[in-house]
Amino acid sequence: MDSNGNYYPTNGLSSKKLVCNIGHCDKKFQRPEHLKRHKDTHSGVQNFHCVMCTKDFQRNDNCLEHYWTHVQVPHHKPKRNPRWPLEELERRVQRTTRFPDPANSRPATISTEEAAKIIEKLRSKWEKEFPRE
Ligand SMILES: [Zn+2]
Ligand SMILES: [Zn+2]
Fold it and tell me: C2H2-type domain: from which residue to which, for each copy (predicted)?
C-alpha cells in the first residue's frame, strides 16, 4: 500500500491492477488517474463538466476556462470542439439551465448561477482578447 492508501498487488504481471480500497468497493483500475477519479466519487468531490461537450474537469476554474474553446474567434483555425459565436454560445449556456443541450451526448443541466459565471467569464475574456477602441 502506498501513502495514498492505494493497493498495488504484485503477484503476476498481467493482473497488475489498482484496487479501490474504500469500504467494500473493490473496483479495479489499470491506471492511477482512473482510480483517483473513481475515488473522488466516494469522497463527494465534485467533478465539473462542460455542458456543451462531454469534457470533465476536477476543478471549476479549469472548466470555466474550457468554455472559451467553444467560442468562435475570428481568424483562429477551427479546432475539434464545436464552436459558436459568443452570443450564440451564451444563449446555449443559458438554455442548459432548463434543458440539456441536445448535441451533448451526456445531457446535463446547470444552475442559473453557474450559467451566469460562465457567461461572465466568457465576456471578460472576450473583452481582453478584443478590446474595444
Ligand atoms: Zn471504489
Ligand atoms: Zn466543452
Answer: 18-47
Mean pLDDT, 10 residues at a time, the chain of 133 residues: 59 64 85 84 74 84 93 80 93 89 73 93 95 81
Domain holding 17, by residue range, is 1-45
- From the CA of 19, the nearest ligand is 1
DSSP strands (E only) in 17-120: 18-19, 28-29, 48-49, 56-57
Cell of 121: 467569464
Q: Within this chain, do residues 38 and 57 fall inside the same structural domain, yes or no?
A: no
Residue 11 Cα to ligand 1 middle (Å): 21
Per the confidence metrics, is the pTM higher than 0.85?
no
Q: How many A from CA of 64 to the centre of ligand 1?
A: 28
| Predicted local confidence at residue 70, as pLDDT | 94
DSSP state, residue 100: -
